[in-house]
Write a structure and sequence with these properties.
EC 2.6.1.124, four-stranded mixed beta sheet, globular, 375 residues, pyridoxal phosphate, binds pyridoxal-5'-phosphate, 2 domains, 19% strand, 14 helices, aminotransferase
């Protein structure tokens, strides 16, 4: 094989429809990872497909320094649906770039350099975002990364209070850690983070690349916690499968962002895809379904396998099942014996991030399979 970065799995996916994907021999799989949370509306959603097709007919790309109607509409839609007073948007092409921009904006707007990040956190793989990512394996071969990053234990307000000082540009945090094992925060932690950063004049960045787009039961997890950070970063599900990232900012950040740009920022096709994705999520009350189905799935899993596994946790349709060292074996069995594609989160957790449009029957399918695999 001529590619060299991915350790590819022995299933070649050819097409998708809703919560299901099909391999090249026609075998059906329930996509319980939503292809890494990238298709919140399921595969091939009509509204997104037709928005993209219509835009392709008009123009594929125009230089980002000219406005285009699709991008302007997306800016407005994100401003309308973000927690107040966040109403400025920077668009890019991925999660790591959205975080990279957030870190640059925070340094520029505060004049400070220190970044505080969390242990077990994941923010992407470009040099800046990577420096705020916890896992050494991802960082070691590429050092030195950007300096002045301090890590604090996740969900520990006292440790955060100690780390954030008058030299701090930003605290970056996932409101629910994804890659780190599906770790929700305790009540009061995000509020405390808001207070601590505000007192120090530092920017609070919520990395919602995975928690956003309705996954945890509100369009943004920030709205569930009722905390408005200074920046929210998004990507993964934002284009329902097409590549886009966003850094949503308060005015004081946007007014002092420095000098930053990207060639493909908010091209018309991707903006049409994201616009259709966000408006469908809002109009169809998709976050409500995520909340209800998440509760149903967690409750049913607890009843069926609660005694066999170490822990079942999460918010909305972002669920982790702590199965111990056998997580990879469990994932393989789920795929090959039960036709269910799930994801790992570290070595011990089976991660479920299905499309947010799933119904009880899909959840039942997963519970039955998990019962056989870990029971
Ligand atoms: C996936 C992810 C990223 C990185 O996004 P890419 O599009 O892969 O660069 C950053 N933060 C979180 C929380 C993620 O889940």
């Amino acid at each position: 094989m001529s590619g060299f970065v991915f350790n590819e799995k022995p299933i070649q996916i050819e097409r998708g429809d809703g919560a299901y994907v099909y391999d090249d021999s026609g075998t059906e799989y329930l996509d319980m990872g939503a292809s890494y949370a990238c298709v919140p509306l399921g595969h091939g959603h009509e509204a997104v497909q037709s928005a993209v097709a219509e835009q392709l007919e008009k123009i594929t790309y125009v230089q980002a320094s000219y406005p285009n109607a699709e991008r302007t509409a997306l800016y407005d839609l994100l401003a309308d649906t973000a927690p107040d007073p966040i109403d400025k948007t920077w668009l890019c092409n991925s999660g790591t770039e959205a975080n990279e921009a957030a870190l640059k904006f925070a340094r520029s707007a505060t004049g400070n350099s220190k970044i505080v990040a969390t242990m077990q956190g994941f923010h992407g793989r470009t040099m800046g975002a990577l420096a705020t990512t916890w896992k050494n394996k991802y960082k070691k071969p590429y050092e030195p990364l950007i300096g002045d990053v301090e890590f604090v234990p996740y969900d520990d307000a006292d440790a955060l209070d100690e780390a954030v000082d008058e030299d701090t540009a930003a605290f970056i945090v996932e409101p629910v850690q994804g890659e780190g094992g599906i770790n929700p925060t305790s009540p009061g932690y995000l509020e405390a983070a808001r207070e601590i950063t505000e007192d120090a004049g530092a920017a609070l960045i919520f990395d919602e690349v995975q928690t956003g787009m309705g996954r945890t039961g509100a369009l943004w997890n920030s709205q569930r916690a009722d905390v408005a950070p200074d920046m929210i970063t998004s990507a993964k599900g934002l284009g329902n499968g097409l590549p886009i990232g966003a850094t949503l900012c308060r005015d004081w950040i946007a007014e002092n962002y420095g000098s930053h740009a990207s060639t493909f920022s908010g091209g018309p096709v991707i903006s049409a895809a994201a616009g259709a994705t966000v408006s469908t999520i809002v109009e169809d009350d998709v976050p409500e379904n995520a909340a209800a189905m998440g509760e149903y799935l967690q409750t049913e899993l607890e009843a069926a396998i609660g005694d066999e596994v170490r822990d079942i946790r999460g918010e909305g349709l972002m669920i982790g099942v702590e199965v111990g060292r056998g997580a990879n074996k469990a994932l393989k069995q789920l795929a090959l014996n039960h036709g269910i594609l799930a994801l790992p989160a570290g070595r011990t957790v089976v991660r479920l991030l299905p499309p947010l449009t799933i119904e009880e029957s899909h959840a039942d399918e997963v519970v039955e399979a998990m019962t056989e695999v870990v029971g």
